[in-house]
C-alpha cells in the first residue's frame, strides 16, 4: 500500500485506508466521497487503485483556502483527471458507486441524508464507509447511521476506531469473509465478539457476548495508535527495544507490564 504522511492525511488511519482499498471489489469503477476536506481519503484510494475514478462532494462553506488545498493536492498526486468536484449531490442521477465515504456535516440530519443518498446510489457489491462513527462531539453520526441500518437493508460488517463499514444484506457474506481474511493475513488485531474468558481491560468475560447487529456478526478492529498501525502494515520500522526495556521486562511483574501496555495502546 502506498501511504503518505502529510497534512491531508493527518486524520486518516492507515488501517482505514488499507481496508478501504482492499475491500473494493471492482478493479475499475467510481467511488464517491461526501465531505472531502483536503482529500486525504479520496486521493489515498486513487493512488492505490489506478482504475478507480472519484466524485468529490463538498460545498466548502467559508473554506475557500481548504478547497484550493484539495485542488492543489490533486495536482501534486497526479489524480486531478480522475476526480469530479461538486458542491452537493442534488445533480447526481443515474450513477452508482462501488464505495461511498461519508465525512460531511456531522449533524444527525445531515448524516441521515448522506447515508440515504449513498444507499440509493450504491453499486452491486458496493460498500458505505461512515467516518467519525464514535466521535465524542458528534453523537448524531452513530445515531443516524444506526437509524438507517434498522430501517433499510444495510448492515455493518466491520468497525474500526473511526469508521463503520456497511453493505447490503445480500452482500454481507461476501464482504464479511473478505474483510476477515484480509485482516487475518495482515495480522491486524481484531475480535468478532467475546468468548467466555476473553479479557476486556484486564477483566475476563464471564460469558459469551456477541458482536452481531441485526443478526450479522461484526468484525471489530482493536484500537491502535497511528504509528502502531503503520508498523503492523509494514510501512514503518518497529523500534528496537532498549536494554533498559529488556531488563524491565525480565524484572517487573506481569501485571505491571500489562498496565504499561494498555496505557501505551490508548495513547
User: How many beta-strand runs?
Assistant: 11
Order of SSEs: HEHEHEEHEHEEHEEEEHHH
Globally, the shape reads globular
Give, in spatial order, the strands making up the sheet with the most strands. Answer: 3-2-1-4-5-7-6-11-8
Q: For the record, what is the CATH homologous superfamily label? A: Vaccinia Virus protein VP39
What is the radius of gyration computed over CA atoms, rounded to a whole number of angstroms? 20 Å
Q: Mean pLDDT, as a whole number?
A: 92
Q: At CATH's second level, what is the architecture?
A: 3-Layer(aba) Sandwich
Q: Tell me the strand percentage band.
A: 15-25%
**Percent of residues in helical segments?**
25-40%
CATH fold title: Rossmann fold
Kindly give the count of domains. Answer: 1
Regions with little confidence, pLDDT below 50 for 5+ residues: none
Judged by helices, strands and strand pairing, the structural class is: alpha/beta
Number of helices: 9
CATH C-level class is Alpha Beta
Could you explain how this protein is built, in words?
The structure is a single chain. The protein is of the alpha/beta class and 267 residues long. It has a single domain, classed as Rossmann fold (3-Layer(aba) Sandwich). The protein is built from 9 helices and 11 strands. The chain has helices spanning 14-23, 40-48, 64-77, 108-120, 139-151, 172-185, 226-232, 243-251, 254-266; strands at residues 29-34, 52-57, 83-86, 97-102, 122-130, 154-159, 164-168, 190-191, 199-200, 203-204, 219-221. Strands 3-2-1-4-5-7-6-11-8 form a 9-stranded mixed beta sheet, with helices on both faces. α4 runs parallel beside α5.
